[in-house]
Structures are given as structure tokens and as C-alpha cells.
Amino acid sequence: MTATRIGLDGLVFDVDVAGPEDGEPVLLLHGFPHNKESWTETAPLLHAAGLRTVAPDQRGYSPDARPAAVADYRLPHLAADALGVLDALGVSSAHVVGHDWGAAVAWYLAARHPGRVRTLTALAIPHLDAYQHAYRVDEEQQHSSQYVEFLVSDGAADHFLADGAAQLHAWFTQAGEGVLTDAQIARYVATHTAAGTLDAALNWYRANNLLGDPLDFGPVTVPTTFVYSRTDTAVSELAVAKTEEYVTGPYRLLTLEKTSHWQPQQDPDTVAAEILARVRAYRQTH
Predict the structure, then answer these.
(1) CATH number at residue 28
(2) Torsion of CA 125, 130, 134, 135, to 10 degrees
(3) What digits encode the pLDDT tens for the residues 22-47?
(4) Cα 241 vs. chain centroid, distance in angstroms?
(5) CA distances (Å), origin 237, targets 14, 87, 118, 233
(6) Burial (0-12, 13-18, 19+ Cβ within 10 Å), 279
């Protein structure tokens, strides 16, 4: 693995690049409140299959890519960061995989920059147009989205960091017994208790109002796989079902019955298998 730093418009991103140098590129976008370490279990499986992975610590998570203004965390900026990382590595297009907020960026890239996205594998989070539709009409999604209202509040970061970051630690342990090791939890907590990290990560919620005006991503034309966990309380069944209406390219929905929201860590074999299946299907037509 090569750990590199990529400068983009005054910001510097920490990026892990690994796998065969001639492998097809796979961009791995982490979610909240994680970082590129969330791909530790999945990435080696992709390398073994001949793929080359690019995993950045995204805006707000890389210490030197942490602008102060909330507006600087809007999705167009987050997507531009991802494309800038690919540009810096000389990658014209990639298979894009995103988890949680990383999936939101991945959906945006696929909808708005389809020429740069060979395939999309979205983990845990549906197309955000489908999510917002469900929030407007579905009581289940409205209930499931209550946590977002808290995360955009001014006191959210202080809440998580109080009492030795007790609530932040609890956020990671809620993944379930054995999903994250004690060492992994300790590293995540240490990362997010560093000055400014958690507040910057929460700016993703503040800048992109999931519960407000429509984001209007538009349709996705690239081959897409959406992996949904039925036990994930953040997303309603309607949002999941509605996602297919926003994908005009080849589409597959995989529902995991027992895996939690933390798919890359808890079930890396299935996640890697779905990515590989999508990549192989793409190869057959290109």
C-alpha cells in the first residue's frame, strides 16, 4: 500500500492506494463517522482479484482538508474532491464504491459525472432522491430520520465529546459485538476527538439538508448495485424500493438480512463479492 497526500485547491487529502498497478481502479468513499480505515477488511479482497483501490480520507477527515465554512461541505465540493483525487492519479474513470455518506457522494458522481464512473456500488444508503421522497411521504422514514435533526444541531459535537467522548464511543460500539475490534474503536475515537475533526465531519449533514429542499440528483445511467441491510434503522423500505426508479442503467438490489449498517467491516466478503460481480459484468460489455 502507498499512503500519499494529494493537494487540491489549497486542501491536502490523505489517500491510500493499493493493489496491482495495472488493476482496474476502484474508488472507495467512506462514510460518517469513519475514515479510509473502514475499507481495511474489504480492500485486500479486491486486490486479490486484481483491482487497484484508491481510498481517501475525505473533506473534513483529512486534517489538512478541513475548511471552516459549512457551505464548503456541499455535495458538489465533495464530488469535486473525489474527481480531483482521480485526476491527480491519472485515472480518467473508476468503479466507484461508497458507504453511508460516501454512498451519497458516489450516487452524486454517478448521476452528475457518469463519464467518470464505470460502475456504482452503493452501500447502506439509497439514491438520495428516493430517500427524500420517502421522508416526505413515509412515517417510517420520518421516524428513522430523527437522528439527522440532532446531528445538524449546534450542540451535536459537544454531546459526542463530553465525558471522555462517551457517546462517540457508544456510536462505534452500536455496530454490534465483534464488528469492530477494541483497537479499531480506539483509533476511530482518537481520530474524531482531535481538534476540529468531528465538527468538520458533522458539516456534511449541515451543508446538505437531507430533510429539506430536494437535492435533485437526477437519474443514474451507469451499472449500479445497491446493498441494503434490513436491520439498518436509518433507511425505510420505501426509500429502498423507490431507488430503482432513479436508476436507468443495469440495476441490482441486494438485501442483507443480518448484517448491520456497518457492511464493509461486518461482511467484507459479501461487499467485495458484489463489487467484483459488478466489475465483471462491466468487463463483458466494454
Answers:
(1) 3.40.50.1820
(2) 70
(3) 999 999 999 999 999 999 999 999 99
(4) 20
(5) 36, 37, 27, 10
(6) buried
CA 236 to chain CA centroid, Å, is 18
CA separation, residue 65 to residues 7, 73, 184, 196, 267 (Å): 9, 11, 23, 11, 30
| Residue bearing cell 448495485 | 225
Residue by residue, DSSP assigns 100-157 as: THHHHHHHHHHHH-GGGEEEEEEES---HHHHHHHHHH-HHHHHHTHHHHHHTSTTHH
Q: How many CB atoms lie within 10 A of CB 277?
A: 15
| Count: domains in the chain | 1
Distance CA 119, CA 83 (A): 15
Count of C-beta atoms within a 10 Å radius of residue 147: 11
**pLDDT tens profile 75-130:** 999 999 999 999 999 999 999 999 999 999 999 999 999 999 999 999 999 999 99
Provide the 8-state DSSP code for 174: T
Distance CA 160, CA 175 (A): 16
Domain hosting 82: range is 2-285
Other beta carbons within 10 angstroms of residue 177's beta carbon come to: 6
